[in-house]
Every structure is written in C-alpha cells, then in structure tokens.
Amino acid sequence: MPAKYRNLFLLIGVVAIVIMLASFDMSWADLYKNVRRAGIWFPAVVVLWVPIYMMNALAWRIIIHDGEAERVSFWRILKLTISGYALNYVTPVGLLGGEPYRIMELTPFVGKAKAASSVILYAMMHIFSHFWFWLFGVVVFFVRYGHEMTWPLAVMFSLVCLFCLLAIYFFLNGYRNGLAMRTLRILSHLPFVGHRCAQMAEHHAEGLQKVDQQIAALHQQRRRTFYLSLGLELLARLVGCLEILFILFIFTPDISFWDCVLMQAFISLFANLFFFIPMQMGTREGGLALVTDGMHMHGAYGVLTGLITRLRELIWISIGLLLIRFGNKKTEIS
C-alpha cells in the first residue's frame, strides 16, 4: 500500500482518539481512581483481547487460504485484523475504514480479486455471527429468566428473534446465490445513496459477479471452511463475554458467566442498532444502563463496565494504529 494511504488511515485514527479522549465524562483524576479500583481486572480485560483477535484472525485465515498453500503468514493476518478493527471502530458505518485498508494491504500477497473476496467474505461472516449470537442470547434469557417473563419482554424478545431469523435467512440465501450484486440492487432503491449504488452495480458488474461466485462456492462447495470460520467467530464472541465477567468481579464474585453472555448480547444488539455512530459513542453506555437496570443491578456496575470497556478500546485502537505503520514488508505475488 502506498505510504500516503497508510498516513491517511493513521490520521483518521489519531483524530478519532482525540475525540474519544475528549468524550470522557469525568476528570483524569477520577479515571485514574477507577482504574486503580479495578486492580488486576483491568489488565486482564486488556490481555483478554489477544486470544479474541487471534480467533478472529484464524477465522479470516481459513477463508484466505481455504486449503491452498499459505501465502500470508498468520502474524500478518493478525496485524491486519487488529488494525482493521481499529479503523472500523473509529469510522462512521464501520466498513468505511477497516475493509478497504485490509484489501489494499492484502493485495500484494494474493492479488486484488482474492484480497477483495476474502475481506468481503470475512466481513459477512463477522456480521453473520452477530445474529447467531443475539439469537443465542435470547435462548439464554428464556432458560434463566423465562419464569419472570412479562408481556413487554415477550414482545421484545419475539421481535429480536424474528429480526435475527430473517437476517440469518437473508445471509444464507445470499451465501447460496451471492450477495454483492443483490445488496447493491436493494441499496439502489434507497434515497440519497441509491443512484451511486446503481452506478457501482453497473460499472463493476463483472467483478461483483466473481465475488458472488466465490461467496456461493464458500457455502456450497467448501462447507468445512464456512462452518469452521463461523464457529471461530462465535467462540470469539463467547470469550468476549469474559470481559464483563472480569469487570463485575470488581464488585462481587457472585456473578454468572451466562448472565454476562446475556448482557453482552443485549449491549451488542443495542450498539449495532446505531452502527452509524463513530466509536459507538454513548450507545454502549446506554445499553449498559438499560441492561443493568433490567437485571436489577446497581447503576455503578454499568458505569464502571462502560468506563473500563472504553479504556480497553482506546488501548487496542492505539495498538492497531501503530501496527498500520510497522511491519509493512513489501511482498508481491509470485
């Protein structure tokens, strides 16, 4: 990737970090006090994301190579995974930053077509796993708290189930028949962006059809690759629930991992409903406030959970941005 593009991605990230630091609703003294209160659980939360990112990288690596000879090392894929998520997090609508960056960095190793298709396929898998995780969260709620069900909760969870099942059907249908062209055709009917999407579908029809063929082939012909990648993404989400568990250990040892799964599923759903907000500013905190109140927890639980999570994100965003500048050995396709 040309240095000017790396510098542009880096600049976007640095500006976002400045905004993030300015958005903390407490003084530096209070931040330090709360981090000290967290004790060993704060570094535990930060380190927890090493295996999570490694599972994400493995899920993407499986798609990139798919039984072929290895052309990209696992450590480079891990570097691009961390940097890509850092850029996704700080840019509006997520995919405006991380996915183009990953495609540009991967192209010298596997070619533009393979780089684009593997990044799109992994992004689809990452999104697809969201719906399965949210559906699993609904099951956890019914198993643990079904006896406390009220009509408002029943309606809410029914809507969540319907939404997830429709999304899973849409993705499975897209995996069978290709999703790129179909998505652009749907978007072409929307106001503001519709005309541009229609132009993209027309001008890049051949390339998009190739991507759709690879998407369909992944699900129909290489099911082992498909389900292994999906399984790793779901496992990464379950391991991520330990973050909430570690933070709540600051307050009490009497907390269930399955309650943390339920909390993480709800927070994730709430935050993704507002996917267009950079850095999910305010959305996670709002989700935490709702879920802690709904589970009859003290409000301080949600406040400190949001704070520790935000600090962890800031650390990993900084690491991801540094990785953009380092380890960029030039390698061309052989």
Strand-helix topology:
Elements: H1 3-22, H2 28-38, H3 41-65, H4 74-90, H5 98-110, H6 112-145, H7 151-177, H8 180-187, H9 194-203, H10 205-220, H11 223-240, H12 242-248, H13 257-273, H14 283-294, H15 299-325
The proportion of strand residues reads: under 5%
Shape: globular
End-to-end distance: 17 Å
> What is the count of DSSP helices, taking H or I runs of 4+ residues?
15
Give Rg in angstroms: 21 Å
Low-confidence stretches are: none
Summed over residues and divided by their number, the pLDDT gives a mean of: 77
Give the proportion of residues in helices. Answer: over 70%
Main sheet summary: none
Extended strand count: 0
The helix/strand series, from N terminus to C terminus, equals HHHHHHHHHHHHHHH
Task: Explain what this protein looks like in three dimensions.
With 334 residues, the protein is mostly helical. The protein has a domain at 3-125 and 224-325. It contains 15 helices and no strands. The protein has helices spanning 3-22, 28-38, 41-65, 74-90, 98-110, 112-145, 151-177, 180-187, 194-203, 205-220, 223-240, 242-248, 257-273, 283-294, 299-325.
